[in-house]
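TICKET #2291
ISSUE: user wants both folds in one file
ATTACHMENT 1:
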Amino acid sequence: MSTFLRMTGVVDGLISNGYDFGAAGSVTGGTPLTNGTAVVVAAANLSTSGAGVIPAGGTITVTVAGGFISAAVLGGGPWDGFSVGETITIAAAGTGVAPASEWGTDITITLTTADVQVGYSQLNVPLDNFGCIDPQSHTTDSVQIDLIQPGLAANYKITFNGMSTAALALKTAVSVSNAIQVALQSTSDVILNPYLPKGVTPAQVVYELA
């Protein structure tokens, strides 16, 4: 028997780490712009107009050339929850150098359909021959679910990293644990597909030998 848990999550407005907005028309402001070396702007000096999440360690590296922004590169992702039309504002006062030496006003990035990814992502986790499960910590950092096969010293674990709240971690643990129990009780090949709670994606899952 082959039993898989296909975990599906919504990727809602994900902007990839390392994404470069470049000199697109969606980048405005910053006048007057002065050519210079790349300037790294920290999360504390970034803001959004919508539900997009700027990660705690998020940065945007801005490079000015020829009087225009030649690169605006994201760092410290993941950047999630953004929507088309939402704006990311880079404060002039947050450049770390005298603002007038780089740009004199805030820079605004207006997100387009080319900037954000909206869709679903999946991860298949094999559950063959495991007799029971054991949900572990429900912290704001991660939640771990052990797949235990009686009599074996080495088992497997599923770890969800990057939980934003303990409540979300607990909800994830309960949802996935219940799905695993149903899958393990099946007497035929099965692919069970529990949708992960909003805010959790398969990209946060690590499946490894315990």
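ATTACHMENT 2:
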Amino acid sequence: MSRFLDRFRAIVLPRSVLLVVLLVFATSLAVTATLVAGVGLLTEDAGLTRRLLTSILLPVLGITLAAAMLGFYLLHRIHRPVLQLVEAAARLRQGDLTTPVPAVRERDLSPLAEELEAARTELRDHLGKIARMEARHKAFIAALREPILTANPEGFVTGCSWSAQELFGQQRHIIGLPIQDLLPFLAGKPFGEGARITWQGQVEDAFGRSLDLEVNRTVLIEEGGSPSHIYTLYDVSHHAEASRMREQLLYNIAHELRTPLAVLQNALELLNESYATLAAEELRHLLGAALRTSRRLENLMTDLLSAGSIQAGRFIVNPRPVRLAQLVQEAIEDIIPMTETRGQKVEPHLCSKDLQVLADPRAVTRVLTNLLSNAAKYGPGGQPILVEAETVDGAVRVTVADQGPGIPEEQRAGLFDRFYRVKTGNDEPGIGLGLAIVKGIAEAHGGSVGVASEPGAGTRVWFTLPVVS
């Protein structure tokens, strides 16, 4: 447009002025020549003809000059508003909707100026309304916690929320990517029909974590435009993990129950079939096995009930002064069947045999039994298990130490959570409640728990109890 204006000024204006001057001058010459020729024919006097030519030509030239100036002035008056309107049209085309179209006084051009100004104001108001609507939509999408992606019918991403950028990473150019590059499981069969359908699958976020997602797609059909596909992403990792934990828990409970129930059933069958022929020693052995198995089942049920009570905040302890050595001895006797089969021995190292703690005897014995059972499971056969006690800041710290493979640092964070089991390659039975119960009981006494372990150097698990002064 600027090139057009420059060309208009450089070519059209000078040629227009020149044309006006030439027309006036030619007209004047023609009139002068006609008058002079007429006089010469009538008088046939050359001198008179020259005088007439001189006296007429000079005024004619003056009139020509005045006419040229007048023509220039008139062209300038027309040229200026035309240039103003051309410049205003150029600004509109370039997107400048803030500069008003100048008003012109020329009667023929003023309607054009008024229409251009009306078009500018309407376009400005319309674009402002669109910008405000778009800002509201962006603010609405940004306020949503769930990541949102929009895509065209061809499957290419056209927009995303901030949470979606955080999910997939700021460094990735999301816009323009195929939607299946971000959500590969969309290639699978969805759930549902019609405009709203759902997929479920896993993706890897910007930090390398695997997330379980549920993706809902809604088709938005706009008037006069192509439909937009809106994908809403829901992180269902917690639900998926809870479902996996529930399935694993049921499997572990079934596995834990199956072995002792089989032992108990075999003992009862032998007693039923061969009671009259069994020797006293054999009878004592079968009854002992049945009794230990029933205790194992009872402990399992107690763990499940205790874990549920602790989680629900309904676990209550009744502490009273009791000798710590007595609690340790009772726990050692409870796990004798396990330690004997593994050739292990529990060695207590207490700071004082008469040391008293403020504790619920049944609950604290359960804590010690759980810790000793874990030490026997994961400690090597034939190696001792240590129980140590020392006073620290007005409390007693009780530590159970084994010489097993240790716990890697990355697996210690959830060690005291329910149903959490350390992955050491040891296929020992268990449902992952022992340490969670230890923590719950210790905290119910106003104490705390902790662990110190290094791979290949064993594990030391401790808890504290109030000391009786």
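RESOLUTION: both attachments delivered.
EXTRA DETAIL ON ATTACHMENT 2: The chain has eleven helices and twelve strands.
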